[in-house]
């Protein structure tokens, strides 16, 4: 999710990749019987997948003449069943475009008098500029009064509410309404519309609006209004139905370990708007054809996505990447779609990422090509390098960078420089504090809840026996010696089960021990056929402990990718952290 930083739960990543290789002669698709994926490209894809430990990938390409080409590599089960165009997979954040389409349909229903419920009388006009506050008068509240009053549906889905990704603030047992209600406790990083910052919780909020005013659940709304009319009969927002199909892919980590599906049925309602659609490449061809035809189903002439919504959703509302390079332009973000040019060709696109999920939908509206890629292993840069190589071929461009690149399994954009402690055994006794001063319970308000930090160094309190044992088990299996400066906690989040703090540097100022926190899932009994213990880190974020008057008083977690208004203003860690926990 975690779309993806990480596996940034669900990120969009108009990645600028690679460099122009030797100028191979332009090869004409027609010379290969019209096939985009010729033998050479197929083995290139295989090499990229192998180098990056991807288990399986399914591809569909819609050609300008309406014909479709499928290809697939690898497996969908650990028994070795091959993946194909009928394999069901989660779309990750490529689900977000289904939410913007759905909100557009709901708006149209009201305009056409086909509404099944009444809006509150706070709503004068229902359109993309309608304020969330008017739609959710009793629920929508953020720390910033201006944002609370002025944020519109358009701001919500174009990632410019000023709230950074607080993806650790919800657990698997929260409802969409819980996420909306917890928003008031979350710290904003920027002002409304100051900058783009990806936020899944706003898509959870958007789905909540639909469930509140459509007379049906969000999941049913998407199925009835989009999937069914588009004949996407293998697609669903209900994980149990995907499992029952017998064609649902299993999921893997980048070290080739099988992991459970990240979104079990009881959590699917929560994540539905941000990343909840399951589909096949074959079904997604219908969706891509619809989009290449501006929202009208060419088979029936039915408008599925109202035109105003389609145009807005695929336009640049916010700026997601302010700098281009020699392959890609700057990138804008609409409503569940990114827009930029790749080597001069305009593209509407979205990526999806979650544990065991990497997906892409790329549309070249002026060239008539569409591409769907569904993989059962996380790694957005891996699928992106393949998608761009495919585009080079169907756009008739000299290959830009058909080198096989190995991409890091964990996105490290926010990882602080990790330093090796001078004396690995018990190094902190040389500084003012012992590691024991950092252990204990930390409490936050809102969804972040509480966790108890444990040290692997005895004596171990009763509460700490289980987590210490769990970390020792996965470390031993990985052959990693216990790092005595690590701190562990059980922290049941949607995206993780535990958190591991690794020491970065000691106290060099008023506050701070700097740590990096790995948001991680521990599988002490393995998973699938392989019962050996392992760990799957989904994200690494910076942490600092605050020391006041010689006492550790709390810790701050980072959430924003750029310095927040608080950080710019300055102050104590308690004042400037994106997320603050008091030490109890
Ligand atoms: C494009 O940019 C990359 C990275 O900055 C560079 O190595 C490469 O030479 C550039 N290619 C061209 C054709 O300018
Ligand atoms: C797919 O399954 C086959 C048969 O079990 C196996 O030989 C192959 O290594 C598997 N490939 C991947 C990428 O896991
Ligand atoms: C929606 O429908 C209800 C009853 O069917 C009606 O009272 C209401 O005014 C309609 N429109 C809006 C904008 O709520
Ligand atoms: C692939 O998986 C193996 C373990 O199965 C691991 O040692 C290796 O580092 C992984 N490679 C990548 C690129 O992730
Ligand atoms: C769709 O509309 C076009 C143009 O109006 C018409 O030529 C075509 O027959 C229609 N197709 C269907 C399936 O109704
Ligand atoms: C966290 O700790 C505080 C202080 O002890 C307590 O009031 C609160 O209920 C706890 N929250 C949770 C989610 O356990």
Briefly, what is this?
This protein has helices spanning 39-51, 96-111, 132-135, 145-150, 153-157, 176-182, 200-213, 218-227, 239-244, 265-275, 281-292, 307-313, 380-394, 462-478, 565-569, 573-576; strands spanning 56-62, 68-74, 89-90, 251-252, 258-259, 278-279, 296-297, 302-303, 318-321, 331-333, 338-342, 345-354, 357-364, 369-375, 440-443, 450-453, 487-490, 498-505, 514-523, 534-548, 551-557, 579-583.
| SSE-based structural type | alpha+beta
CATH architecture of the largest domain: 3-Layer(aba) Sandwich
The CATH H-level homologous superfamily of the largest domain: DD-peptidase/beta-lactamase superfamily
Report the count of strand segments.
22
| Beta-strand fraction estimate | 15-25%
Q: In angstroms, what separates the terminal alpha carbons?
A: 31 Å
Number of domains: 3
Residue-averaged pLDDT: 89
The largest pleated sheet is described as: 8 strands, antiparallel
Describe the 3D structure.
- The chain has 584 residues and is α+β, with helices and mostly antiparallel strands.
- It has three domains: 29-94 and 235-394, DD-peptidase/beta-lactamase superfamily (Beta-lactamase); 98-213, Beta-lactamase, CATH 3.40.710; 427-583, no CATH class.
- Helices cover 26% and strands 21% of the residues.
- The chain is built from 16 helices and 22 strands.
- It has helices at 39-51, 96-111, 132-135, 145-150, 153-157, 176-182, 200-213, 218-227, 239-244, 265-275, 281-292, 307-313, 380-394, 462-478, 565-569, 573-576, and strands at residues 56-62, 68-74, 89-90, 251-252, 258-259, 278-279, 296-297, 302-303, 318-321, 331-333, 338-342, 345-354, 357-364, 369-375, 440-443, 450-453, 487-490, 498-505, 514-523, 534-548, 551-557, 579-583.
- It has an eight-stranded antiparallel sheet, sandwiched between helices. Strands 16-15-22-21-20-19-18-17 form an eight-stranded antiparallel sheet. A two-stranded antiparallel sheet has the order 3-6.
- Strand 13 and strand 14 (369-375) form a beta hairpin.
- Helix 2 (96-111) crosses helix 8 and helix 2 runs antiparallel to helix 12.
- The relative contact order is 0.16.
- The structure holds 2-acetamido-2-deoxy-beta-D-glucopyranose (NAG) (6 copies).
- Residues 19-20, 325-326 line the site of one 2-acetamido-2-deoxy-beta-D-glucopyranose.
């Amino acid at each position: 999710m975690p779309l993806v930083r990480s596996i940034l739960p669900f990120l969009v990543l108009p990645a600028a990749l690679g460099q122009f290789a030797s100028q191979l002669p332009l090869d004409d698709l027609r010379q290969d019987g019209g096939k985009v994926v010729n033998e050479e490209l197929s083995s290139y894809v295989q090499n990229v997948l192998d180098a990056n430990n991807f288990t399986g990938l399914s591809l569909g390409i819609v050609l300008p003449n309406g014909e479709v080409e499928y290809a697939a590599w690898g497996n969908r089960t650990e028994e070795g069943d091959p993946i194909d165009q009928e394999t069901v997979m989660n779309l990750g954040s490529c689900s977000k475009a289904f939410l913007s389409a759905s909100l557009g349909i709901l708006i149209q229903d009201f305009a056409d008098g086909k509404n099944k419920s009444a809006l509150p009388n706070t709503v004068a006009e229902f359109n993309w500029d309608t304020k969330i506050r008017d739609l959710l008068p009793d629920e929508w509240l953020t720390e910033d009064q201006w944002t609370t009053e002025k944020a519109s549906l358009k701001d919500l889905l174009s990632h410019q509410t000023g709230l950074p990704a607080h993806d650790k603030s919800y657990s698997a047992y929260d409802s969409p309404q819980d996420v909306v209600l917890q928003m008031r406790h979350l710290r904003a990083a920027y002002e409304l519309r100051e900058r783009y910052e990806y936020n899944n919780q706003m898509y959870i909020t958007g789905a909540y609006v639909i469930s509140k005013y459509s007379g049906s659940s969000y999941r049913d709304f998407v199925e009835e209004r989009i999937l069914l009319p588009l004949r996407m009969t293998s697609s669903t927002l209900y994980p149990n139905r995907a499992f029952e199909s017998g064609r649902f892919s299993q999921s893997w980590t980048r070290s080739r370990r099988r992991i459970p599906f990240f979104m079990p049925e009881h959590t699917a309602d929560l994540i539905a708007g941000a990343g909840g659609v399951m589909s096949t490449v074959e079904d997604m061809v219908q969706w891509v054809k619809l989009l290449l035809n501006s929202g009208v189903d060419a088979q029936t002439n039915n408008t599925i996505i109202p035109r105003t919504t389609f145009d807005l959703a695929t336009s640049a509302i916010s700026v997601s990447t302010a700098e281009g390079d020699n392959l890609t332009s700057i990138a804008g973000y609409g409503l569940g779609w990114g827009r930029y040019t790749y080597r001069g060709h305009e593209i509407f696109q979205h990526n999806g990422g979650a544990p065991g999920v990497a997906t892409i939908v790329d549309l070249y509206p002026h060239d008539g090509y569409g591409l769907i890629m569904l993989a059962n292993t996380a790694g957005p840069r891996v699928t992106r390098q393949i998608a761009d190589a495919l585009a080079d071929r169907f756009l008739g461009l000299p290959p830009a960078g058909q080198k096989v690149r190995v991409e890091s399994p964990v996105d490290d954009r926010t990882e602080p420089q990790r330093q090796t402690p001078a004396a690995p055994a018990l190094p902190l006794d040389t500084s003012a504090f012992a590691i024991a001063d950092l252990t204990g319970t930390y409490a936050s308000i809102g969804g972040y809840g509480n966790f108890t930090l444990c040290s692997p160094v005895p004596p171990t309190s009763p509460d700490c026996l289980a987590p210490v044992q769990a970390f020792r088990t996965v470390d031993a299996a990985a052959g990693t010696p216990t790092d005595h400066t690590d701190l562990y906690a059980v922290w049941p989040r949607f995206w993780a089960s535990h958190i591991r703090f690794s020491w970065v540097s000691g106290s060099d100022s008023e506050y701070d021990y700097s740590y990096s926190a790995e948001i991680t899932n521990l599988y002490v009994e393995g998973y699938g056929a392989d019962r050996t213990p392992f760990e799957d880190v989904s994200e690494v974020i910076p942490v600092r402990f605050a020391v006041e008057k010689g006492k550790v008083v709390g810790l701050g977690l980072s959430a924003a990718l750029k310095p927040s208004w608080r950080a710019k203003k300055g102050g104590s860690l308690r004042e400037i952290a994106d997320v603050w926990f008091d030490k109890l």
